[in-house]
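so my prof wants the structure for this chain in the tokens format not the other one, which i didnt know existed until like an hour ago. anyway here's the sequence
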Amino acid sequence: MAGNPTTLRIDYIEFNVADIAASKAFYGAAFGWSFTDYGPEYCEFGDGRLTGGFTAMGKPQPGGPLVILYADDLEASLTAVERAGGKIVKPITAFPGGRRFHFGDPDGYELAVWSKD
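here's what i got, hopefully its the right format
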């Protein structure tokens, strides 16, 4: 990866969603993400480090690669996901190097949150 330090790295994640407002409400409440609207069918989200988008121009497609978020306080993140309306798919479990849980968002996408502790 000589030269451009951002080449060949994940740069953007895009979700087809049924309802942009519902996705913004969920991810804003659960993780504090910020949003920039680009018309009625597209919204960019930012988590403070990575950006991505919610689009209503396609059908939700749960599955695909597992998107994993990091949290210093795993229990607090699990509580925030539940309060925001997420469904816990796999409870907190340990693995070599940390712990994590999986959840489903309002459109059925499965994501995970992990922590080193």
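also thought this was worth mentioning. Residues 25 and 84 are 8 Å apart (CA to CA).
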